[in-house]
Amino acid sequence: MLIIGIAGGTGSGKTTVVNTIIDELQHEEVAVISQDSYYRDTSDLSYDQRTKINFDHPQSIDFELLVKHLKQLKEGKSIPQPVYSFTDHNRTGETIETPPKKVMLVEGILILTNPELRELFDIMIYVHADSDERLIRRLKRDMKERGRDLDEVLNRYQTTLKPMHQQFIEPSKEFADIIIPNNRYNTVAVDIVQTIIRERLD
Ligand SMILES: Nc1ncnc2c1ncn2[C@@H]1O[C@H](COP(=O)(O)OP(=O)(O)O)[C@@H](O)[C@H]1O
Ligand SMILES: Nc1ccn([C@@H]2O[C@H](COP(=O)(O)O)[C@@H](O)[C@H]2O)c(=O)n1
């Protein structure tokens, strides 16, 4: 099994890069694990309390469960990947049975900050886009797809997103084997990653 970690700030294009990588590969050989599925269960909190959580801090992620699941996949076992709702700011209680595949792509803003996770990755990738570009993309995406308004996104950006990016996410770039510059769509870098994966699949 080849486990590839794909990190980068919010809006840098991680999900887009992952989708482009797997588009041309045989889907039955590749699976994706999203760090977003591993936000901690916060059912004990009210909705209002959940809106105030700092979702860009490493403590918001259940890394213990993510590490446990990756180890189980490596052992050839399927895992129940939790389903997360950005509308409720919580896990839904449902899970998706995720079987082990030859190539596992793990994507998320904070995955390179965790030493135990880094140990499990064969290749670490960091997707870079400038902060103004990321904010514009995040605004458009969260308003269109995650039910947020302008004030919510800008307030979150100023209070948690930007400081956490500077404190935790940007510094984790030093662990990356490959940095993908993604201010514009980067087909060359994606081709390179696809080639590495194809070699492993052959
Ligand atoms: N290189 C790019 N140029 C322009 N828009 C992009 C680019 N990459 C991604 N996007 C768009 O930006 C938004 C955020 O991208 P996404 O892949 O969800 O980022 P991430 O997973 O890193 O938060 C999406 O609407 C996506 O279509
Ligand atoms: N309930 C939540 C949980 C997380 N976020 C934000 O999602 C971002 C990470 O996801 P990406 O797909 O953008 O990598 C992160 O920056 C959190 O602020 C949220 O808004 N609400």
Structure, explained:
This protein has seven helices and seven strands. The chain has 202 residues and is of the alpha/beta class. It has a single domain (2-194), classed as 3-Layer(aba) Sandwich (Rossmann fold). A hairpin with a 4-residue loop joins strand 3 and strand 4. The longest helix is centred in the last third of the chain and has 20 residues, at 150-169. Ligand L45E5XJ5 binds at residues 10-11, 14-15, 36, 39, 55-56, 86, 89, 109, 156, 161.
Task: List the defining traits of the structure above.
single chain; 202 residues; alpha/beta; Rossmann fold; two-stranded antiparallel sheet; 7 strands; globular; binds adenosine-5'-diphosphate; binds the ligand Nc1ccn([C@@H]2O[C@H](COP(=O)(O)O)[C@@H](O)[C@H]2O)c(=O)n1
Task: Please render the helix and strand layout as text.
Layout: E1 2-7, H1 14-23, E2 30-34, H2 47-51, H3 63-74, E3 79-85, E4 90-98, E5 103-107, H4 115-120, E6 123-128, H5 131-145, H6 150-169, E7 178-181, H7 187-201
Parallel strand pairs: 1-5, 1-6, 2-5, 6-7
Antiparallel strand pairs: 3-4
Helix pairs in contact: 1-7, 5-6
The protein binds adenosine-5'-diphosphate and ligand L45E5XJ5.
Keywords: ATP-binding, Cytoplasm, Kinase, Nucleotide-binding, Transferase
Subcellular location: Cytoplasm
GO cellular component, one term: cytoplasm
